[in-house]
Amino acid sequence: MKEILLNKSGKKIILLGNEAVCRGAIEAGVDFVSTYPGTPASEIGNTFWQIKEDFKKINPKFHFEFSTNEKVAMEAAAGAAISGFKSLVAMKNFGLNVASDFLCTLMYSGIEGSMVIFVADDPSCWSSAQSEQNTRFYSLMAHIPTLEPSEPQEFKDFTKFAFNLSAQFKIPVMIRSTTRASHQSGPVTLGEIPNSKFQIPKFVKDPKKFSTMPPRVLEMKKELFEKIEKIKKQFEKSNLNKIIYGNSREKLGILTSGVSFLYVMEALKKLNLKLPVLKLGFIYPLPERKILNFLKKLKSVLIVEELEPYLEREIAILAKKENLKIKIFGKGEKIEGGRIWKERKAILPQIGELKPEYVEIAISKILNKKPSFNYQLHLKKFEKLKIPARPPILCPGCPYWAVVNAIKKVVDLQKVIFGGEIGCYMLFSHKVINLQDYLYCMGSSTSIAHGISKTSKQKVITFIGDSSFFHAGIPALINTVFNQSNPLIIILENQTTAMTGHQPHPGVGDGRVVKVEEIVRACGIKNVKVIDQVKNPEEFEKGLKEFLEKDEASVIIARHICALLEKKKKT
Question: Do residues 212 and 336 share a domain?
Fold first, then answer.
């Protein structure tokens, strides 16, 4: 990863989209980076983790941390930004949910330095099993300026632009990505790494700036809206929104953003077409004048985007306000009122990732043109292949196997409810293991267990990893004690954040180590056992039997290092 930091300007190197964000932040002179590891954004934290000591030689002010969760990470980055520093915080889509309480408030106060928030969505749920969250709607709700790059060079350039925009308007700026965009690789031309300024900024006291209390908070909201209007005017002129084939006389145009733009260009190439394309670099606030000028030359427009129709809704509203008689093709939600709504056609899916062939087929349908390839026939032939399913399973030697074996040996599986959570132990859902009756989000296994045991009186065994425990499990544990229910909580302490790449957490690593059992006892749990389930399987089985009979909450900390991490440490 040192080449991301040390290579000189003008050189071209191959980077992932996420790695290009790191280089963009470095070229912007970033001082503070915080994150909680979550795929598809993990590489940003991993990269800075690897290069932090080298980067400190260039920028002695620099600090990087894996925070306990995304809310804490965003708050820490904001602390740096309101003190005049340049900060970056990175997370996956669900991490923004965790941080959203703070985000919506932070937008009112603004910042002093600059702050960029990177969020990666996961269409098709490749790594984020819970849902296909569409983070773009947070842009509207929080009123945060949002950019959407499509390929690695843009990832670097947009990041630098975001830092500059943030500094100019004293406001956080968000970069929204997706799995396909973040994990694609491509050539990136490197820019200059600035010389660090050794002057250390300071937090300047001003009660009107950062305290969001009424009635001042309403003034802050007005100031936020005024900033957004100024930013919108600047976006109208930006070359980050660009028109391709602008001289085309075709009456069908395409409006798109992010990785969907690449699918559009591939589809047009296969169809040998040069339709006018408006590629938006900014998805909030939208450059309305530029969009309207683009639409006025057309009879119909295809909106190409993934997941729910964020752009399509905004474009339809804009077109209706301007009384444009234009057909809008896309996801095709039916909304009453006005001719424009009745003419909208559903031609692209709202579920899952887009593919170039989806876009090609959509364009072909609108133009009554034959696609370049018979995709449906190919799919039918492909479906005849009998490929055995290979769902993911725990690694050979994983210490969680010992937990599974013990439970199956001593627990009546029909009488006990099993609560799952986010981490490697999600794989307890595999039919070979079958120890997961519900799964939602980090920290939820214990809270749900409390609700089940408090109402139905059924016994519940919940699983939570050590990193997840520090992330969101502690409040749930306190609630269980305070409101007096009796689940058996098994904290799977494999001494790392394993699923996202072996990042450290407060229970391990370079900082001051926080013992899980000390936290558990401090939360009020009386029945606590720390057992190495691999070395002492009989003791673990005995602990299960004992605690299942308890009429109050109990915790077993299954402590054994991740097999892959153990092997890595030995090599």
Answer: no
Q: Which two tokens mark 123?
A: 């269409």
Q: For residue 408, how far is the Cα from the chain centroid?
A: 35
pTM: 0.91
Q: Does residue 388 belong to any structural domain of this protein? A: no
Alpha-carbon 464 to chain mean position: 21
Residue 472 domain-assigned? yes
pLDDT value, residue 346: 67
Are 177 and 128 part of one and the same domain? yes
Element (H, E) at 68: none
pLDDT tens for each residue of 142-158: 999 999 999 999 999 99
pLDDT over 90 percentage in the chain: 72
Provide the residue type at 71 as one letter: K
**Which DSSP symbol is given to 430?**
S
Q: Residue 415 is encoded by which pair of tokens? A: 């009488």
Query: What is the per-residue pLDDT for 248?
Result: 83
Residue 539 pLDDT exceeds 80: yes
Final residue before a domain boundary, out of 215, 237, 259 = 237
Residue pair 326/252 in contact (Cβ under 8 Å)? The answer is no
| Separation CA 1–CA 14 (nearest Å) | 11
Q: What is the number of domains present in the chain?
A: 3
- Same-domain status, 214 and 313: no
pLDDT, tens only, 151-202? 999 999 999 999 999 999 999 999 999 999 999 999 999 999 988 776 788 8
**Close Cβ partners of 377 (under 8 Å, ≥ 6 residues apart):** none
Would the CA dihedral through 223, 225, 227, 229 be positive or negative? negative
Residue 394 lies in a domain: no
Query: What are the distances in angstroms from CA 221 to CA 80, 224, 287?
Result: 22, 5, 21
Distance CA 301, CA 324 (A): 12
Cβ(213)–Cβ(92) below 8 Å: no
The pLDDT-based confidence of 446 (bands split at 50, 70, 90) is very high
Long-range contacts of 362-368 (CB under 8 A, 24+ apart): 362/302, 362/304, 362/329, 363/252, 363/254, 363/267, 363/268, 363/271, 363/273, 363/275, 363/302, 364/271, 366/252, 366/300, 366/302, 366/329, 367/252, 367/273
Give the angle 557-71-260 at the CA atoms, nearest 5°.
110
**Is pLDDT of 333 > 70?**
no
Q: How far is CA 256 from CA 301, 330, 346, 368, in A?
A: 10, 11, 16, 21
**22 exposed, middle or buried (CB, 10 Å; 0-12, 13-18, 19+)?**
buried
Same domain membership, residue 226 and residue 261 = no
